[in-house]
Design goal:
Elements lengths: L11 E3 L3 E8 L2 H13 L15 H9 L10 E9 H7 L6 E5 L10 E3 L8 E5 L2 E5 L3 H27 L4 H4 L8 E8 L1 H11 L13 H17 L1 H9 L6
Parallel strand pairs: 1-5
Antiparallel strand pairs: 2-3, 3-8, 4-8, 6-7
Length: about 250
């Protein structure tokens, strides 16, 4: 039996994303003891009590020569709130990632929707595979905001109408757009995060050009800020070696 929906809430519109580091076991020393076990055996555990700065050369060597497995012995869990279309791109990253997302089958989805901010470039120029985005006009920004908000409002009213008539949430959610905000926990290690960042962010030190959609790049930038504080030597080596995952 479908629960009676709550009184219709007023839609909210966001141009940002939320990324919170909710728990972690991640430090530069994790890379060092994992790497040194190959030559030091049980003595490699001594790296836990040493200052990682003394061994930053080893971290750089591992990154440069792409010895990747030592970068997997750590964990970071993020809480992310972003538009559904961001999560559909996000979940193409499968190796080294675990996800749990809120379910439109089990809860009534809230009317929070994505509308691009003023800084979001709106106009795509060029052919597929060789294009760029440029600033939109004021009229284009106004049109985008108005049309999106109207579409979101009508879609959510249709969703609420079906819920009120007793239609199951898993059916009623079909009318909701991919601009709806969802939330999830995403857990990864440094190696899988580096692969994500290498593809989903643009950076002046990147050896390989990338063309991410801006909204998933926003998520990547905030995840990188957290990771850089946890593993500064590993982060520096990642940048110094072209932002290519080992």
């Amino acid at each position: 039996m479908t629960e009676t929906p709550t009184e219709t809430e007023k839609p909210q519109y966001r141009s940002d994303v939320t990324v919170e580091l909710v728990k972690h076991s991640a430090a530069d020393s994790d890379v060092l003891w994992a790497a040194r076990v190959s030559t030091a055996g049980e003595q490699s555990l001594e790296e836990l009590t040493k200052e990682p700065e003394r061994s930053k050369g080893l971290i750089n060597f591992l990154m440069r020569d792409r010895h990747g497995s030592p970068f997997e012995h750590n964990s970071m869990t993020f809480f992310i709130s972003a538009p559904i279309f961001v999560f559909r791109e996000f979940m193409r990253h499968r190796v080294g990632w675990s996800y749990n997302e809120e379910s439109g089958r089990y809860r009534e989805l809230q009317p929070v929707f994505y509308v691009p901010g003023e800084a979001r470039k709106l106009v795509q120029q060029g052919r597929p595979g060789k294009y760029e985005f440029v600033e939109g006009t004021q009229a284009q920004h106004e049109l985008t905001g108005r049309v999106m908000e109207d579409a979101y409002r009508h879609a959510y009213e249709a969703y609420q109408e079906m819920l009120a008539a007793g239609v199951a949430r898993e059916v009623a959610r079909s009318v909701l757009p991919v601009g709806l905000f969802s939330s999830m926990y995403a857990t990864c290690n440094a190696r899988s995060l580096m692969h994500f960042l290498g593809l989903r962010t643009q950076h002046e030190q990147a050896a390989v050009p990338t063309f991410p959609q801006r909204e998933i790049e926003m998520v990547g930038e905030r995840m990188e800020e957290h990771w850089a504080r946890l593993m500064p030597l590993t982060h520096a080596a990642f940048n110094a070696n072209g932002r290519v995952a080992p």
